[in-house]
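[09:14] KT: can someone run the structure on this one? pasting the chain below
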Amino acid sequence: MSRFFSSKFSALTPYTPGEQPTDQRYIKLNTNESPFPPSPKAQSYAREEAGKLELYSDPTCAALTKKACQVFGVEREEIIFSNGSDEVLNFAFMAFCDKHTPAVFPDITYGFYKVFAQLNGIPYTQIPLKEDFSIGLSDYQNAKGTLFIANPNAPTGLLLSLAEIESIVASDPDRVVVIDEAYIDFGGVSAIPLTKKYNNLLVVQTFSKSRSMAGARLGFGVGCKALIQDLNTIKYSTNPYNVNRMTMAAGLGALEDDDYFRKNCRAIMENRAWTAQQLAALGFTMTDSMTNFLFAKSPAIAGKELYNALKARGILVRHFDTPRLTDYIRLTVGSREQMEAFISTVKEILEVSL
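[09:31] RB: done, C-alpha cells below
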C-alpha cells in the first residue's frame, strides 16, 4: 500500500472473489454463475438501451420497480434496486450498524459480511455454526445487534425454513434482521411476504444466480417503507445512478420472462440432484444443498488436492483453505454436459489417487 493510504483501512482484509482465469478455457464451476445465458427478452431490452448510454439512468428504476412490485407483491416504497446485492448489503451495514449496534453473522457464511463490517468500522460478532454446519436458532434469537443471515447459507447450502426465519425476526422487534436470499430460487421459500408483518426485516436478493445476470450487477432489497427510506438515504448520498441503463432494462426483461426463469431453475435443481447422486456413489458426503452449488468432500482425497487436480484438467471449483472447510470443495451446478464432464474427471482423479 502507499504511504497515503488511510490508517483506518490498514487492517482491512479484502474479499477474495472466485478465480476468473484467462490462461486457458475452463469448465467454470467455481463462482456459482448460471450455465444459461440471460433471457432473450433481457438481452433484447439491454441492446435497445445500449444506444442511449449518453444519458443518465433513471435513479428511481421506475419501470423495473413497477414490474418487480407485481412479481414480488410489494409497493414501490418497499423495494430498492442496487448494483448487485453486495451494494444493498453494504447499505444495510452502513444504515443499521454502528459502534453501539454491532453486526452479527455466522462464522462460516458469505465472506463479504466481515469485509463490510471492517470497511465501515463496525464491531461484529461471528456465531459458530453447529458441527453439522447448521445455524443454532437460539443463538440468533438471543443475539444483540443487526443480524445478517444468508439463507440458504454459503458455502454450506443449508436452508432455514420460513418458520425458523420468522422465529428469529419475531424474537426481538427492536433490531433489524437482514436475510440474504441470493440462492432462494433453487428450492427455498422467500421471506419477502414476512416484510408485510415485521418492520424489522430486510430481505435481499440478486439477479446474478437464478436470472443469469451475474455480469450485469443487479440486486434489490425489500422491507417496510421506513427501512427502504433509510437505504435510499445512503444510496442518494453515494451514487444515485447506481444501476446502469442496460442492466435496468435487462432486469425488466428477466422479470417479464418468467417461464424462462423457472425452466432454468428446474434444470439446475435436476442437475444438482443428478450430480449429488453420482458423487454419493463415489463415496462423497455432502450437505443438503438448496442452492445452485454442492458442498462435498471425499474420504479418498483432500479438498485442496482435488481442487488442484480438477484445475489441472480444466475444471475450476472453489476450495476454502480454512480448518473446518478444508476437506470440502464447493462446485457450481452447471449444465448436464458440464456435470457429466465433472463426474468423469473426478472418477479419473480418484482412480489415480487410489
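[09:33] KT: thanks! DSSP finds eleven helices and twelve strands in the chain.
[09:34] RB: yep, looked fine to me
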